[in-house]
Structures are given as structure tokens and as C-alpha cells.
Amino acid sequence: MNQEVTAYIENLPKWQGGFSSTLRDMVHETIPEAEERIQYKKPHFLKNGQYAAVISPSKDAIAFMIMNANGIDFPKGFEGPAERKWIKLREGDTPDLALLSGLLKQASSTL
After folding, report:
1. Is-contact 57 44, C-beta < 8 A?
2. Beta carbons of 54 and 108 less than 8 angstroms apart
3. How many CB atoms lie within 10 A of CB 56?
4. Which of 54, 63, 51 shows the shortest CA–CA distance to 110?
5. Is the pTM of the predicted complex or chain greater than 0.85?
6. Cross-strand bridge partners of residue 111
7. Which Gene3D superfamilies does the record associate with it (predicted)?
8. Cβ–Cβ < 8 Å for 51, 110
């Protein structure tokens, strides 16, 4: 795990840090070989040097973005163009980690 990513997550508001830590763990369980780094001021996860996922905090939400999403059927609640989809999680939400992991696994399988 990248120390910059750890420090970034630790400096988020408590609920955002909790979501980000949970999402980070899910990414590493789904893509064990994933590399992580801070890029464009947010945590990015790469597989074979290509973007697989991004955690993007905003004032009132955490957006979890899945890259390489072309041709994947995403359920209601996801936004974005065909090549990348994200879902916004807000304080009090319960992320469906099994769903997110399945979508991430499918999207990253060709990276």
C-alpha cells in the first residue's frame, strides 16, 4: 500500500475516510496486483499500468469510479460515459461491496 494514499485517506473527514478505506481494501481484494498512487490529487488504482479505479471525494460525497467500463451493464445509480462509470456515496449510505467488486473485476479483466 502506498503511504501517500494512506495519508490522503487519513486526512479526510471521518465518514469519507471510512468509505475510502473500505473501498481501497475492496479494490485490493478484487485486483490483488493493483498499484495505487495519488494522481490528480486523488487515489488512483492501476492494473498493468492502466487505470482501473479512482476514489474521488467531494464536499458531500465519495465517488467511486470504475474505468474500462465499455460494454458493461451498470445498474441504476451509476453515472458517466461508456468508458468510465461512477457511483456517489454519501454519509449514511451502505455501499454494495459485492456489486462494486463484481463490476470492477469485470472491467479490469481486460487490463
Report:
1. no
2. no
3. 17
4. 51
5. yes
6. none
7. 3.90.1150.200
8. no
Residue 48: half-sphere exposure toward Cβ, Cα within 13 Å: 5
Cell triple for residue 71?
460494454
40 DSSP 8-state letter: T
Strand order in the sheet with 50-57: 35-39, 42-47, 50-57, 62-67, 84-89
Q: How many beta carbons lie within 10 A of that of residue 92, not counting itself?
A: 6
* CA–CA distance, 7 with 103 (Å, rounded to integer): 27
C-alpha cell at 88: 456517489
Number of helical (H) and strand (E) elements in the chain, helices listed first: 3, 5
Q: Which helix (H) or strand (E) holds 66?
A: strand 62-67
* Phi/psi at 28 (5° precision): -70, -30
Q: Report residue 111's pLDDT band, with 50, 70 and 90 as the boundaries.
A: very high
The sign of the dihedral angle between the CA atoms of 102, 62, 22, 10 is: positive
